[in-house]
Design goal:
336 residues; alpha/beta; Rossmann fold; eight-stranded mixed beta sheet
Length: 336
């Protein structure tokens, strides 16, 4: 049964929803390095719904893409001529090198890779690391399972051996906007070695967005896994990258009984709603990400209410799922 709290936001018009979807595409393309595409999508979003100009996410994105002060960034995006110049400049930055230069660069890269490969093989053969590598492949092949529920795929990896008396802990990793669970599947071994069941759903663009997204399907996936395997009753530890981090927080609010802790990496926003349980929350951003200065003001009210929320800026890291965030998730696994 859907026990979601009533969303206090008014129903959005179809045009407003389309504008928000366009804004999400702009954010995704910006993270992928496609500045020209991001500029076009942001301009389209603002044309469809000028009210977006009053939202921090649109302002911050315009500032990140253009490199201009906040007071000028949005004006530049909506100005046709200036936007055209910015797009032209962005395309020039991504323009491919001439064919001959690409071929020479490719040959140089291949030569370097060949030398590195030969040296790596020699080192692995002498150190026994090659066998460790093969063992990691075997674990992934034998124990990674792909399931589907309510039309959503998810990857599942279970530790070797028998479960503890109180069951296995569970880690659920949420990919970034537009991604899939396979992208985070390499983390399966890390969490299996720590004695945890690993789950990685494929949620794409977390639609409906705006909206609550696929909250109910994820809840049913976790319930289904709990019916198949002995899982600790305290709930799962959630680790979310980018939009997956925003979704992880939202899921913990609406389904608090299924969550024991949340770690995020580069979350672009947080809903203005408070947790139902005082579980550990660890919100992280890379120092080079640029989002944290705009998102942290959304976190302070949650902290001021006395919830167990910690923030950390990871040095020399951009918009990525950092090792620090992974380590914090492992630490939460060890807590009772």
């Amino acid at each position: 049964m859907n026990n979601l709290p009533q969303d206090p936001k008014p129903e959005m018009s179809r045009q407003s929803k389309a504008a928000h979807a366009e804004l999400e595409r702009a954010l995704s393309m910006h993270f992928d390095g496609n500045k020209a595409g991001a500029l076009k999508s942001l301009r389209n979003a603002l044309r469809q719904d000028p009210a977006l100009a009053d939202q921090p996410l649109a302002n911050n994105l315009a500032r990140e893409i253009t490199g201009l002060p906040a007071s000028e960034a949005l004006k530049s995006v909506v100005n046709d001529q200036v936007n055209k110049d910015l797009i032209h400049s962005a395309k020039a930055e991504r323009q491919e090198t001439p064919t001959m230069q690409r071929q020479r660069n490719m040959l140089m890269v291949l030569a370097v890779l060949l030398v590195v490969f030969i040296g790596l093989c020699a080192w692995m053969a002498g150190s026994g690391a090659f066998e460790v590598y093969l063992d990691a492949i075997r674990i992934t092949q034998l124990q990674s399972q792909k399931g589907n529920l309510d039309g959503y795929d998810y990857y599942l990896a279970v530790p070797k051996g028998l479960a503890p008396d109180n069951g296995w802990p569970m880690v659920v990793v949420f990919h970034g906007y537009g991604g899939n669970g396979e992208q985070v599947l390499p983390l399966a071994k890390t969490f299996n070695d720590a004695g945890a069941v690993f789950v990685a759903p494929t949620l794409g663009e977390y639609r409906p967005n705006p909206g609550n997204g696929p909250l109910e399907p994820v809840s049913r996936i976790l319930t289904e896994i709990g019916n198949q395997y002995p899982i600790q009753s305290r709930g799962a530890i959630l680790l979310g990258h980018s939009q997956g981090g925003s979704f992880a927080y939202r899921f913990s609010v609406y389904y608090p009984g299924q969550v024991a802790g949340v770690v995020t990496a580069g979350a672009p926003e947080f809903d203005g709603i408070y947790p139902k349980r005082n579980i550990p929350y660890i919100f992280t951003w890379g120092e080079l990400d640029g989002l944290q200065q705009f998102v942290l003001p959304m976190v302070y009210p949650i902290q001021n209410q006395g919830f167990n929320v910690r923030t950390y800026i990871v040095p020399d890291v951009g918009h990525e799922l950092s090792q620090y965030a992974i380590d914090q998730t492992l630490i939460l696994l060890e807590q009772p």
